[in-house]
Amino acid sequence: MGQPSYGSELISRTLAGIGEEASPLTHLSVIESRSAEFAAWPEWVHPAVRDAFAERGLRQPWRHQAEAATLAAEPVEAMCDALVARLAPHAEDDVALLAVRVPSR
Hints:
The protein has one domain (6-90). By secondary structure, the protein is mainly α. The protein contains 4 helices and no strands. It has helices at 6-14, 47-55, 63-72, 76-87.
């Protein structure tokens, strides 16, 4: 692997001085960087929200952010089913998912 990633460096600094036998870290997998994929805002996003992001230079969300926002608007059961379906083809072990939706005020 080439140059250390920010995440790997952060983990190393966080665990500095902790022996391997005492480390709380049980697994580390570094995912290679890839090109950004953007998507359109979900239709239900209020124009004021889009404008606020655009004013800060964020004209479009990344694809995974748009997908997550769309799933978050679904009923909890549908959201969990969709997330597990996406994880299952790549899961090397059992998949557990905890979802908590906090009621709006």
